[in-house]
Amino acid sequence: MRTKPKSFWIARGLPVTNITLDTNTVKLSAESLSKVVLDPALLGKIKEFEERESKLEKKKTLLIKFSQAALAARSSVFVL
């Protein structure tokens, strides 16, 4: 817990409710979510993360294919 709530609220004896992590949720309707307007800077950052993840996935796929091809080439070589 952060120090400010402890010192400014709890230490003064103000009301406190202990909750578990699974009850700390908010339910939103699809309609209210569809009306949310996000900051263009945030949308740009999300797009940047998506592009970076896409590049990493492509590299990972290429590495797996290369490894599989190398293993197949190794197993097809006969040692006499």
Features:
mainly alpha; 80 residues; 62% helix
Could you please describe the fold and organization of this structure?
The chain has 80 residues and is mostly helical. 62% of the residues lie in helices and 0% in strands. It is built from 3 helices and no strands. The protein has helices spanning 3-10, 30-34, 40-76. The longest helix has 37 residues, at 40-76. It is elongated, with a radius of gyration of 26 Å. The mean pLDDT is 84.
- Helix-strand pattern: HHH
* Poorly predicted residue ranges: none
Helix content: 55-70%
Shape: elongated
- Count every helix, treating DSSP H or I runs of 4 or more residues as helices: 3
**Ends apart, CA distance between termini:** 68 Å
What integer is the average pLDDT? 84
State the major sheet.
none
Indicate the structural class: mainly alpha
Share of residues in strands: under 5%
What is the strand tally? 0
Rg, Å, rounded: 26 Å
Summed up:
This protein has helices at residues 3-10, 30-34, 40-76. The chain is mainly α.
Draw up the topology in text.
Blueprint: H1 3-10, H2 30-34, H3 40-76
